[in-house]
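Re: [ENG-882] Designed sequences occasionally contain unexpected residues at chain ends

Forwarding the minimal case from QA. Structure tokens:
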């Protein structure tokens, strides 16, 4: 077995003010890449990449988070998945501020050819200090999904209204520099097709001023998908983070 080196590359520029669950920033970008390669009796390749970028001033801001996964097992493509979450904010220095969002996705694992989910909502900053922050958000969204194969009821396209409840928390230790964050989404369907759930958790521990260990876990629960695909996916990765 040959296992590819796990690497996380991060670049962060910081100042006061905060519009997301990560560090306060005027401009910030994080790039991550992990992977593994196995050759021999079983041939398996898996590459997981992440991009998280944010830009803001005192009035408006934007954030884009992209997760990508590519995998093969023998001659079969098991993952070619991309998920992007995009936000545009206004009045970002307020305790309550509005935003518009777009969730775009495709997934071989869940047989999703394309998803477009626009929405509008507001975030309420419950707690925000140097070491701990909690935010809750409510969103009205319209979820349109095209599937690769037909659903059990014969449809290949779903279009439905989904309200979204989102909670995000972040904690930083005073002495050791440990940082932990968690973001959870609950998305019920007004058309009765079930509740989508999404969870993204990260923990990092510094090794030096520039280098840190980082681990992340992301889970997705999709209640209605074509037969033969799993409704639940879990992605876990660990590696090094380099801050520039």
């Amino acid at each position: 077995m040959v296992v590819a080196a796990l690497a996380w590359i991060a670049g962060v520029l910081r100042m006061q003010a905060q519009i997301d669950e990560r560090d306060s920033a005027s401009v910030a970008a994080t790039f991550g890449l992990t992977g593994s390669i196995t050759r021999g009796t079983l041939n398996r390749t898996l590459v997981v990449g992440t991009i998280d970028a944010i830009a803001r001033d005192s009035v408006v801001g934007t954030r884009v988070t992209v997760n990508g996964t590519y995998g093969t097992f023998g001659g079969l493509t098991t993952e070619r998945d991309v998920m992007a979450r995009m936000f545009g904010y206004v009045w970002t220095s307020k305790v309550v501020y509005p935003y518009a969002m777009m969730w775009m996705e495709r997934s071989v694992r869940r047989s999703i050819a394309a998803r477009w989910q626009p929405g509008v909502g507001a975030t309420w900053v419950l707690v925000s200090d140097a070491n701990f922050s909690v935010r809750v958000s409510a969103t009205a969204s319209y979820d349109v999904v095209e599937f690769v194969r037909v659903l059990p009821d014969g449809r290949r396209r779903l279009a439905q209204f989904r309200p979204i409840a989102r909670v995000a928390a972040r904690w930083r230790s005073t002495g050791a520099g440990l940082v932990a964050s968690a973001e959870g989404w609950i998305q019920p369907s007004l058309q009765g097709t079930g509740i989508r759930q999404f969870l993204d958790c990260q923990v990092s521990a510094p090794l030096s001023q520039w280098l840190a260990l980082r681990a992340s876990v992301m889970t997705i629960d999709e209640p209605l998908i074509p037969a033969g695909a799993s409704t639940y996916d879990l992605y876990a990765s660990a590696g090094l983070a380099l801050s520039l």
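QA comment: On inspection the terminal residues look reasonable. Residues 14 and 112 are 37 Å apart (CA to CA). Proposing we downgrade this to a documentation issue.
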